[in-house]
Specification:
Layout (H helix, E strand, L loop, with lengths): L2 H52 L8
C-alpha cells in the first residue's frame, strides 16, 4: 500500500469513529426523550383517571 492509501484509511477510520460516537450520543438522547415521554403519559393518565373518579365516571368503561 502506498502512504496515500494509508492516510485515506486513517481518515476514513477517524470519520467512522466520530460518526459512531455521534450515533451513540443521539441514541442516548432518544432514550432519555423516550423515558420523559413515558413519564409524561403516566402523569397524564393519573390525572385523567383522577378527574374521571371525581366526576363519578367509571374509567374501566372507557
Amino acid at each position: 500500500m502506498t502512504d496515500m492509501n494509508l492516510v485515506q484509511l486513517e481518515r476514513s477510520a477517524q470519520h467512522l469513529t466520530r460518526r459512531f460516537k455521534r450515533l451513540e450520543n443521539l441514541m442516548d438522547e432518544a432514550w432519555l426523550e423516550h423515558e420523559l415521554i413515558r413519564r409524561d403519559l403516566r402523569d397524564m393518565f393519573t390525572a385523567y383517571y383522577g378527574w374521571l373518579g371525581k366526576e363519578g365516571v367509571d374509567h374501566e368503561r372507557h
